């Protein structure tokens, strides 16, 4: 599903955040992306969401070359991708319902469809009873689950998560990982950037490791 072919990313100023990275992630896989702070994890994800463009090399997602997408293509491509941020980036003065509804409203879905799908997504993350709350009234773990509901409400083929358990204690981190596992079990491809090696080690998924922008050799790459 995801193919990186000799991808490098050099930022303005000359710093090379990714150096000649080649790897593949198959459809339906769940994979962790790890590495020290500054190793290039967020850059890798930002290339996949087409927020950034590679300086050289090719990225293909589901047969589409990301390098050549027009602005309109990018908007369409992003509908298939659900993004979970570490700090969840919720709108704090809007209800949980409205936060989760946001991607559907942007996509121009009809109000009845929005209602149905937001409730289904909130149900999946166990927060249906809190749809009228504002995020400030929720715990950190609950806020992260709202962020996940917002990422999955469009039924994406691919979920990208950047340090989704960064601010959570071990028990809540496990709950969040179980949610990703459930989405993966029904066929969604999941890529999670995390530096929580303890958590990753306890889970039996493939790991891509970055070190100073280079992918470390692994027999399963
Ligand atoms: N927009 C940018 N302009 C210039 N340099 C950048 C930019 N974004 C990231 N970098 C640099 O690229 C390197 C990789 O950053 P990146 O955010 O991808 O790492 P990371 O592995 O996600 O780190 P962390 O775990 O701390 O979030 C860092 O040295 C960072 O300073």
UniProtKB/TrEMBL annotation:
Domain of life: Bacteria
ABC transporter domain mapped to chain residues: 2-221
PROSITE patterns the record matches: ABC_TRANSPORTER_1 (PS00211), ABC_TRANSPORTER_2 (PS50893)
Subcellular locations according to the entry: Cell inner membrane; Cell membrane
Predominant place of localization: membrane
Coiled-coil region(s): none
InterPro entries per UniProt: AAA+_ATPase, ABC_transporter-like_ATP-bd, ABC_transporter-like_CS, ABC_transpr_LolD-like, Cell_div_FtsE
Membrane topology recorded in Swiss-Prot or TrEMBL: Peripheral membrane protein
Cited SMART domains: AAA
Keywords, sorted A to Z: ATP-binding, Cell cycle, Cell division, Cell membrane, Membrane, Nucleotide-binding
Function: Part of the ABC transporter FtsEX involved in cellular division. Important for assembly or stability of the septal ring.
Family (UniProt): Belongs to the ABC transporter superfamily.
Subunit structure: Homodimer. Forms a membrane-associated complex with FtsX.
Name of the featured protein: Cell division ATP-binding protein FtsE
